[in-house]
Give the backbone structure.
Amino acid sequence: MQNKVTVTIDGQEYTLVAGEDAAYMKKVADHVDAKVREVREGGKVSGTDAAILAALNMADEYFKQVEAAEALRGQIKTYLEEAKDLENQLSECKREIFKLQTQGRK
């Protein structure tokens, strides 16, 4: 189901239609508006320039977050491999203990 919401970005109204709920679309629009206003506060730029610069800033943030997520995935993979190695060592130790206990009973 498509949802429709009217938002304001940099003083201009836009009607958005998307599958996400209206609250989410408003949240996204508010983020874009804040980024455009941030650029506008930095100096006198046109609306188009502000939109382009805001888009560049958001793309930069996005790519940095993707890199951070990849780094976290790598860390998790390493931790899982270490956990598997430790689990294997524990199993080997348990077998050795069982073997020694069995030998001690004889």
